[in-house]
Amino acid sequence: MDCVPFILESWRETLQEAGHIFTYRNLQAYSGMDGAWMLERLLPTETHGAREKLLKSQGERYRNDFIERAQAFSAVHPLFESLKRHGICIGIATTCKKDELAIYDRRMGILELVDAVACGEMVRHGKPDPGLLGQCRRSLHLPDPSRAVAIGDTPFDAFAAKAAGMRAVGVLTGGFAGALLAHGLRCFWPPRQARARW
Question: What are the DSSP calls for 38-78, one per residue?
C-alpha cells in the first residue's frame, strides 16, 4: 500500500497538536520504526504516559482521516499471483492492525493468496524488533529462517530481517534511498533499553 505519506502526515499533525513541531522530513527518517521507540527518540523528555497518549491519538487520526486515502501499488495482485504460480509461500508481517489490513485488502485483493499473516497486535514491538517476522515464519511452519526472504521498504525492515536470521530485500516505496536500505540507519537502532539483547 502507498500509505507512508499519510502515516507520516498523521504523525506530523498529531505531534503538532500536542505542541511538538516536526517536519515531514524529520519524521520520514523514522518511518517504519516501532511507534513507541520512535517517540522515545523524538521526545526523550516526555513521560511514558504522554507518549502512549500520542500513539493512541495518531492511530485514531490515521484511521479517521487518512487510511481510506491510501491506494495499492498497481502491480501487487499480479505479483502475488505470479509468486503463487511458482510455488512460493507468502507471508505478510505488518505493524498495522488486522482491521486496517482488511481495509487495505479491499484495494489489493491479496489476502486470498497469502499463506500467513502477522499483524502488529500479535507482538510486543514492531520493527526493527524481529518479533513480527518470527511470528510470520512460525505461521508458515518454516523452521529454518535462512530459507525466508523478507521484503521491506525501510532500514528497520532490513534490521528486523537480519535479527530474525532472514535475508532481506529492500524496495524504494518507503522513501529511503537505496544506500540507506542497504546499510541501515544504525544510529537509530537498537533502542537504549534493548542494546543488551542485540
Answer: HHHHH-TTS-HHHHHHHHHHHHHHIIIIIGGG-B--TTHHH
Per-residue pLDDT of the chain (198 residues; tens, 9 = 90+): 999 999 999 999 999 999 999 999 999 999 999 999 999 999 999 999 999 999 999 999 999 999 999 999 888 999 999 999 999 999 999 999 999 999 999 999 999 999 999 998 888 888 999 999 999 999 999 999 999 999 999 999 988 999 999 998 888 888 887 777 766 544 444 444 443 333
**pTM for the whole thing?**
0.84
* Cα maximum dimension of the chain: 52
In this structure, how many other beta carbons lie within 10 angstroms of the beta carbon of residue 181?
21
Taking the alpha carbons at both ends of the chain, their separation in whole angstroms is: 30
Set out the domains of the chain in order of their start, with CATH numbers.
Answer: 4-69 (1.10.150.240), 76-194 (3.40.50.1000)
